[in-house]
Automatic annotation (TrEMBL):
Positions of the DUF4178 domain: 66-210, 286-423
Segments of skewed composition (Low complexity): 488-497
Cleavable signal peptide: none
Name used for this protein in its record: Uncharacterized protein DUF4178
Native species: Tibeticola sediminis
Amino acid sequence: MAEHSGRPERVYRAPCPGCGAPVEFQSAQSTHAVCGYCQSIVVREGEVLKRIGKMAELFDDHSPLQLGASGRIDGKPFTLVGRLQYQYGEGVWTEWVALFDDGTRAWLAEDNGAYVFSRPVTATQALPAASGFAVGTIVRVGGQPYTVASNQTVSLRSAQGELPKLPPLGAPFAVVELRGVDRAEVLSIDYSPQLSDPKAAPELSRGQPVALEDLSFSGLKDESAKDEQGRQFACPNCGAPVSVQLEQSKSVTCPNCKSLIDLSQGIGGELRHATQDEPVRPLIALGTVGVLDGVHWQVVGFQHRMGQEPGDDESFGWEEYLLYNRKKGFSFLVDATDGWSLVAPLTGAPSVSSDRRRATWQGKSYTLTSAYRATTTYVLGEFYWQVQRGQQTENRDYAAGDQLLSSEQSGPELTWSGGRRLPADAVARAFGLEDKKALLARSDAQPFSADAGVSLRTVIIVFMLLLLLALLLSRCSDCDPNTQNCATSSTSTRSSGGSFGGYSSGGGHK
């Protein structure tokens, strides 16, 4: 039997009332469309199209996705027929309208540099106003517990193709995002008014994390053409050329003056920047490719961050390397005083005890190791979220042996990340830095042990030298936590050593 093409049996076409070009509707549920030629917003009224306005130009995010691309999920084929771009406090995110053969629709949306595939669901209870969802609290919807991960005020920036809904352009509305407790699930509540029904009830959709490689896509943009085009502009601070390599990048640093440049409004808009003077140098150079768990990761970004625990006058510093793989998305390699770790944002949210000292994720219990305020102090490279110097988050780190969890909250958003510790020599091997093992070694190194070939006298001499060195360092340490990975508090007992990704991952469903 021949496989279904994925195209509907009946398609409705009509001339655009603005320019006469053909406008196509593949779904009977689609009430609006945006003309691909003149950007007119048209509404379908029976067999007639009515022009009701003009749409702004799309923000060019250089995504490999495009209208007409087809894929498959759970054995069912779908086609991307529409696109919506939303503006929020940290920048812009995109949602694609996916149309199935049976006429039902779904959403493919950005999520922490990866993707979530969501389907509309019917609310089984009256939903409260958006103001009733406090970030960080636990709520129940349909009998299931969720953590309120995000409560944002957003607005429609632009749209493309045919659409089952269309909020008024530029009008602010709330989007609340709930993360499944101890399960990888996202529940989004969209409070947008609709052009066709300003008093429309909130829309509910339930999503699951997906990788583009698992959706069997065909008809994506030509990746080689996208790489050749690239993006380049003059630094707004010094005028030096700045190139942007990744389609998701929302921030980048100038290779000449190190200014941090905001790309969230697009290169065509006014580029905001902040100068950076601290001489922070990453141990792993940007652009380096390493292999961890059989995956080739490229270092595309670097952050230095500072932490301070409540009631402690001293601070500690650590570094985060943003890693990118075209198929796997983004992860973080964290360099902290107590060792290295590899982590990535979670789609769901762990279950946390009432005193917040224990967290459970996928059957494993984690213990709180530290709670602190984190501040971003220096940035290099590209980031898929709008990173800023001085960004602050409230962090809580948990551990279960080598397994790690971390939560980060800032204003209207709470994110979780998870991963595991890595031995320093594994990091050295992965990135070809065997000659820098001593620089990569951290306090997680194995204690000194004598074998048969080492005399007791040698052990005692080495021990005395190390003790003397420790005494000297305790009196005259020149480690600067603002530019180095060190702890300045002599009483610090943090075992986490720093953030495991969290808010620095760019937020939730955006």
